[in-house]
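Dear Dr. V.,

Thank you for agreeing to look over these. As mentioned in my earlier message, I'm a first-year student in the group and I'm still getting used to reading structure tokens, so any feedback on how I've presented them would be very welcome. I ran two proteins. I've put each sequence directly above its structure. The first is here:
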Amino acid sequence: MAVATGEETKAIARYIRMSPFKVRRVLDQIRGRSYREALIILEFMPYRACEPILKVLRSAVANAEHNAGYAPSELLITQAFADQGPVLKRFRPRAQGRAYQIRKPTCHITIAVAPGAEDED
């Protein structure tokens, strides 16, 4: 689904303390759907990643509404992806004076919305 970049409005959340793999699992479910459908899906999915994704989605729609004048009901999610951010490295003490490295991943969530033909059934 190719949309001209002039019509797209996006929002980015950076340095979210969550693995990008876990975030992508949720983003794959809402990509290409309407704003209303995505809200319902995110509301009832059991994953922790839904909360920051919902926040970014609402921000992208608010940007489209305020900056471009689009109605939220006509918006579709054209792009939704999570890039890997910097990894926080921590150490946990182990037996016999050893240290075990703990990797705490972060990610950057990007969601772009654009107006699309909403087909009501």
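The second protein is here, in the same arrangement:
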Amino acid sequence: MGRLLQCSACEKEMARALALGFLVGFPIAASPGPIFFLVLRRTLARGWRNGLVSGLGVATGDAIYAALAAFGVTVVSNFLIGQRRWIGLVGGGALILIGLRTLVGRQTPHPDPPPQGGREMRKDGSPAGAYASMVALTLSNPPTILSFSAVFAGLGARVGSGWQPAIALVIGVMAGSALWWVIVTALASVVRNRVTPRMTRAIGLVSGIALAGFGIWISGQALLA
């Protein structure tokens, strides 16, 4: 009987941690920033699949930082915070390059048809490249781990009752973040077929300026850190 009660309490604790992680992950993913513009542009230019994979890359990055915060991996987190200047410069530089490439690149409302053999695109246009690039860009913002640590500590959800609730917490964060990007890319995909070439060029212009501007701001913050 005691074991059943203990197991029931553990399941409730994990369910609570899962729900809490979801409630934390969704709004953090929904916060405006350069990642939103990049995922939106990829969805409009390359289709729902590429946009969704990019969004899942963001959710993976969020889950990694959530795991560091939930498990209290202070050595890794302190290293990332200590190196935030260089990581911020790299991430900011990458956003500037992406923004400039968006501004000078050819803006098309739909991606080019895939060649024979099933490959859609090369480099960062491939699903694997899109995913990896978004994980890297998400991880280029080490202060994000401070946000997760502060939220988890404030809600009393830091690891202290075992590793199982911590895992549930991280899964909840990734699920909440992933749901946001599913919604964004699905809506963008619906609108995509109605976007005219002029609107596509305007979106590309706004996205390029926003990405380059965020990159300059992040680089400036890194230099001042």
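From my reading of the second output: The first helix runs from residue 2 to 30. The radius of gyration is 19 Å. Does that match how you would interpret it?

Kind regards,
E.
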